[in-house]
Amino acid sequence: MRTKTLLLTAALSAAGVATSMAQVYSVNAVGYVNTTLTPGLNLISNPLVASDNSIKALFSSLTAVDGAQIFKFDNQKGYTSWVIDFGEISGQQDPAKTTLMPGEGVFVSIPAAAGAQTITFIGDVPQGTTAAPLSTTVPHGLSILSSQVPQAGAADADLGLPAASEDDQFFKYDAANHKYNSSVFSFGEWSPALSDAKLKLNVGDAFFYSNAGTTRNWTRVFSVNQ
To answer: What is the predicted pLDDT for the residue at 226?
Structure first.
């Protein structure tokens, strides 16, 4: 309950993103990504399209970590949560029927006694063409987002985050130090820049985004053969 309260407070104050340590081990269409979770809160993404993208399948390796929690934020409904207890994932919705797709993100809370944990994501690298680009909705208000393409870099310059509206806000959570690093878009620029070391994204990261403007789409054209 205490963890959930912290998360709800973060959402209301427009907070968000955890640092994850991830590596991509494939230049082909199919690959895998290792994401390390530190004790406490982590905000991560599913960087690949798996054969089963459900919460139950993606986080099956955490079923040995009793007390671990998963929180998915909805722009309209708030948080849906799951807890791992006696080797099972259970919560407000059926974890086998709730998905986590590239472009989205979830908080994962790891108990201190469990130590660092590693999740391995296996699946296809998302690819988009000019005719059918990858697309992630950036709704008005607060949401959790991630790059659909498993690349690291600045969200805008490197990963194609769409042009911001005045007063948009970007929040990345520093899991190691339990704090948020943020940026505000004002007078035509992000301050600090999203290329700042504390704001750049690793593969497998997610972040909170507060969109002060209208709903827009984050699109990418990407091929592993580029």
So the answer is: 64
Amino acid identity at 26? S
Q: What is the pLDDT of residues 129-163, one digit of tens each?
A: 999 999 999 999 999 999 999 999 999 999 999 99
Instruction: Give CA angle at 5 (101, 141), nearest 5°.
Output: 50
Q: How would you label 162-175 residue by residue, b for 16+ Cβ within 10 Å and e otherwise?
A: eebeeebbbbbbeb
Query: What's the Rg (C-alpha) of the chain?
Result: 16
Other C-beta atoms closer than 10 Å to the C-beta of 65 total: 19
**Distance (Å, rounded) from C-alpha 202 to C-alpha 47?**
11
In sequence order, what E strands does 78-193 have? Answer: 78-85, 88-91, 106-110, 117-124, 134-138, 141-145, 169-174, 179-186, 189-191
Q: How far apart (Å, rounded) are the C-alpha atoms in residues 155 and 121?
A: 21
Residue 42 has pLDDT above 60, yes or no: yes
> How far apart are alpha carbons 195 and 155 in whole angstroms?
8
Q: Within a 10 A sphere around the Cβ of 187, how many other Cβ atoms? A: 6
Closest C-alpha to 172, from 188, 203, 150, 194: 194
DSSP state of 177: T
Cβ contacts of residue 101 below 8 Å, gap of 6+? 46, 49, 53
Phi (first) and psi of residue 56, to 5 degrees: -60, -45
Please write the tens of the pLDDT for every residue from 82-128.
999 999 999 989 999 999 999 999 999 999 999 999 999 999 999 99
